[in-house]
Amino acid sequence: MRPHSLSRSAPSTVHANTITSSLLSVATGGAGFTDITREVAKFLREAGAREGAVTLFIRHTSASLTIQENADPSVLQDLTTALNRLAPENAGWVHDTEGADDMPAHIKTMLTSVSLQIPVLNGEMALGTWQGIYVAEHRARPHRREIVLQFIGSVAP
Amino acid sequence: MRPHSLSRSAPSTVHANTITSSLLSVATGGAGFTDITREVAKFLREAGAREGAVTLFIRHTSASLTIQENADPSVLQDLTTALNRLAPENAGWVHDTEGADDMPAHIKTMLTSVSLQIPVLNGEMALGTWQGIYVAEHRARPHRREIVLQFIGSVAP
Amino acid sequence: MRPHSLSRSAPSTVHANTITSSLLSVATGGAGFTDITREVAKFLREAGAREGAVTLFIRHTSASLTIQENADPSVLQDLTTALNRLAPENAGWVHDTEGADDMPAHIKTMLTSVSLQIPVLNGEMALGTWQGIYVAEHRARPHRREIVLQFIGSVAP
User: Fold this and answer.
1) Interface of C with B in 103-122 (CB under 8 A)
2) Longest Cα separation, chain A
3) What pTM was estimated for this model as a whole?
């Protein structure tokens, strides 16, 4: 534990009871990251979202979600390297009938995220300046991946 | 970043303001995975859930949650191996008064999930075909673990 | 899969349609963990929260969130060691213009959590006895970090 200071803005409250859902389908180009930030923002605009939160849920066990730096593409390259080091191929896995990249893909999915929740304030996701939302494909070959998008909150009248 | 294509279904909206909570208690058999998918589905049926999301939250720091392949049990065996490699016992940890498996259990919990959120569409969790919800016990001996289940959304009249 | 038994409490339901948001700013002291549990509890009291869930979202890609043991500070020390081993400095990363600690910080963020959701029951977070909520600073030097707090649920009249 380190010395620290805290500050917090006054809470703001709205009344809200709308849930809007949509299914996003992403064709990945094989192992690597696909930025879906704009598509989620577009979904929120279409839903008329004002205040609330958007949930992302990926319906797979060999691809996952992560929020990461969107400025320098070499960050994504290094993240791929890091995952390959943490979950290498041909490392004595028992489950190997679906190819050498399959069990590492499950491990990488476990170490990252299957669901994300992002607050929506005044119609915009409360992302930081450098945050992008990515689908991480962990299989070597291209796949079609499904992500459920769901907004809970208030909508424009 | 790779080439990719995107498609998305039209958003569907419901009005919803119900929150239903329940506490699930799971007796684990020591290190390994326990499938709780059916129990969560049963909770949603009892709650009369229609559209919304179910949150799972585990109240522990040496057991965690993950969504993983439910078809081949050897995947779960390999996930255990992978976690043991990422967080080995007797690796010079300072915190060792509760047994050699305790600090690795905390690390494994940090690398996986304490909370999950799964969209519920038309009364069913939007899980992919091969996705099961698991409690991951990271201590060597059996433990009783508590998971809060909470549905937010619309219910059948 | 191990033998196990399950039990579950009867679902309890409330009607709720309030969303309350606030921005928490935390000055970290450099690499390490800052406990924000009390500050989140204070936010919930100010919001008059009764039943629902609180979402935490950190607006950064080199700091993250985790729920961990709050009893023995040596656990946090070992978690730092574990993250340093999983994402070492000077390990051949391509992205190195922002300092040797920068790319490891992105990897540590990917392996932990950017968003957390904690159920709120009867006005209190449903945390386990030993669970504390932490901001994990992954950069060597102190930083100011922003966390969005958002409660969805019912409030006291």
Assistant:
1) 111-113, 116-119, 121
2) 57
3) 0.94
Other beta carbons within 10 Å of B113: 24
The bridge status of strand C115-121 relative to strand C32-35 is unpaired
* Beta partners for residue A21, in sequence order: A150, B12
CA–CA separation, A33 and A82 (whole Å): 13
Q: Produce one character per residue of C53-88: b if its CB has 16 or more CB atoms within 10 Å, e if not.
A: bbbbbbbbbbbbbbbbbbebeebbbbbbbbbeebbe
Min Cα separation A144/chain C (Å)? 23
Cα dist. A156→A47, A48, A122, A125, C120 in Å?
Answer: 9, 5, 10, 15, 27
The residue of chain A nearest to residue B112, with distances taken between CA atoms, is A111
CA neighbor of B91 nearest in space, from C33, C82, C155, C69: C82
Q: Give me the tens of pLDDT residue by residue for chain B, a chain 157 residues long.
A: 443 567 777 777 766 678 999 999 999 999 999 999 999 999 999 999 999 999 999 999 999 999 999 999 999 999 999 999 999 999 999 999 899 999 999 999 999 999 999 999 999 999 999 999 999 999 999 999 999 999 999 988 7
- ipTM of the complex as predicted: 0.93
Check: CB of residue A44 under 8 Å from CB of residue A123: yes
Tell me whether C17 touches chain A (CB under 8 Å): yes
Residue B67: partners with Cβ closer than 8 Å, 6 or more residues away? A61, A114, B116, B118, B127, B131, B132, B133, B134
Residue B15, chain A, CB below 8 Å: the answer is yes
* Maximal CA-CA distance, chain C: 57
- Residue for token pair 């091969």: B130
